[in-house]
Every structure is written in C-alpha cells, then in structure tokens.
Automatic annotation (TrEMBL):
Molecular functions per Gene Ontology: cytoskeletal motor activity
Gene: Myo1h_1
Record Pfam families: Myosin_TH1
GO cellular component: myosin complex
Protein name in UniProt: MYO1H protein
Residue span, TH1 domain: 47-217
Length: 217
C-alpha cells in the first residue's frame, strides 16, 4: 500500500511540475519547442549534425524585412514575410553557384536576386523537399512540371535544419520532406532530369563531375 501511495504521489508531483513549466513558458519559447518537435520528426536519426543542432535555438529570421530591396518588397506586397535567409543557388544546368536570398511568406517561397524575383513557389503546388543524410546544407525544393516553373530549386543553406523546418511548417508539408542517401533526382525543366550525388571527403565542396552530375562532398 505504501508503494502504491508513493507512486501516486510521484505522478501527482510530476504532473504539477509539468503544468507549472508549461504555464511559465513564454510565447517565444513555446514557438521554439514546437519548431524543434517538427525538426525532430523530420531529421532525428536521419541526418548528420542533428544532435548538434538541438542546443542551437532557431532565429525568427536571418535577415529583417528592411534588408530586402524595396522593389522586392513591392513585388510581394500584401504577403506576410515570415523568414529570410541568405542561400547559395546552383543553376540546374551548369551548376554555377549564385548568391541569393530565400524569402518565405505565409503562402509562397521566393528565390530573390537583389531587386529581382527569380522564382516563386506557391506552397500549395510544392511537390517535395529533399536533403541528404550527410552534414551538407543542400536542400532541393521540388516543384510541379508546368510553364510557370523553370525546374526544381537547388539551394545550399548555412542553417539547414532551421530553414527546412521553417519551410515545411509554413507550407504544411512536413510529410513531403525526404532525407536521402547516396543520390537524388531533380527536375531540370522541359521534361529533363538531373542527378545529384552525395559523398564523404576531407573537405566540403560542390562541383560538376566528369559525368555531368552535381557532386556534393
């Protein structure tokens, strides 16, 4: 009887401590925890670097709205900007690296070059989000094959866990995130496909190999 009473008191005590902790959570801390739960569901046990990312809080955004060119703000006027981060975009054909911004609004993702919008992806049309199981920061945003889109978007992000988490939450497409091993296929446009190969090496690099594939080390 004493053992049962002790167990019941322990459960009641733990329940009270949890209730107290939840009540004292700030709105910002609550958002952090909600985002980290999504990150765990997507990446835990699948991608290198996940465990190290646990102690790193996500920022609300990497760049402020004021950091965007006024022409870009005018073009996306009326959409609530949620997250902006610098990225490196790789061309779908020659794989040339280009500095860009990824702008996530309430309804769409934009790839931005200075004062130009290079590509707009409405979340409702997003077909998938792919990353590798290695420690690289590559993410591929898969888009539908139609005249509005040039092809899938290949980006390199410094804060890969944060960026992918923000994207899949805003798009409500958590189930479409895939962590792949070895290689993945992406759409170049006009019915063509390309291959990206992931491998391990002494130093990180991204290059076009002799076979024409994009190799990520």
């Amino acid at each position: 009887f004493l053992m049962q009473t002790s167990e019941m008191l322990q459960k009641i005590c733990m329940r009270n401590l949890v209730r107290k902790y939840c009540r004292e959570l700030t709105a910002e801390r609550k958002v952090q925890l909600q985002q980290k739960v999504v990150t765990s569901a997507v990446f835990s046990g699948k991608k290198e670097g996940y465990l190290e990312s646990l102690s790193q809080p996500f920022l609300e955004t990497r760049l402020k709205e004021n950091d965007l060119n006024p022409k870009v703000l005018q073009l996306i006027h009326g959409e609530n900007i949620k997250y902006v981060t610098p990225v490196v975009k790789y061309d779908r054909n020659g794989f040339k690296a280009r500095e860009r911004l990824l702008v996530l609004t309430q309804s769409s993702a934009y790839v931005v070059e200075m004062a130009k919008i290079k590509q707009k992806i409405e979340y409702s049309t997003l077909k998938g989000i792919s990353t590798s199981n290695l420690s690289d920061g590559i993410v591929v945003i898969h888009v539908p094959e139609d005249n509005k889109q040039k092809g899938d978007v290949i980006l390199q992000c410094e804060h890969i866990f944060e960026t992918v988490t923000k994207l899949c939450i805003l798009a409500n497409k958590q189930s479409l995130v895939k962590v792949v091993k070895g290689s993945l296929r992406f759409r170049v446009g006009s019915g063509k496909e390309g291959t990206m190969v992931f491998t391990v090496g002494p130093e990180p690099q991204v290059f076009k190999d002799k076979t024409g594939q994009l190799t990520v080390v």
